[in-house]
Amino acid sequence: MGCRVIQGVGAALMLPGTLAVITNAYSREKERAAAIGMWAAIGRVTLPAGPLLGGTLVQALSWRLIFS
Fold first, then answer.
1. What pTM, to 2 d.p., does this model score?
2. Domain residue limits, the chain
3. DSSP code of residue 66
4. What is the rounded distance in angstroms from the CA atom of residue 5 to the CA atom of residue 62?
5. Which of 14, 26, 39, 52 could form a disulfide with 31 if both were Cys (CB 3.0 to 4.6 A apart)?
6. What distance lies between CA 21 and its chain's CA centroid?
7. Element (H, E) at 27
């Protein structure tokens, strides 16, 4: 359980860092806006999909696969 907490905290700290990298990587305002839009669109799909996919895999296969 503790490892999952550490993993979640690490992901939560890394997510805002990706936005900071995007804002520094694109100097032109139009390119930066497009990159942030893409970042938001991908996040909108992947953030809710992760727990759903994880739950589906655990339900279909086994929770024991986490430890193998």
1. 0.63
2. 2-67
3. G
4. 20
5. 26
6. 15
7. none
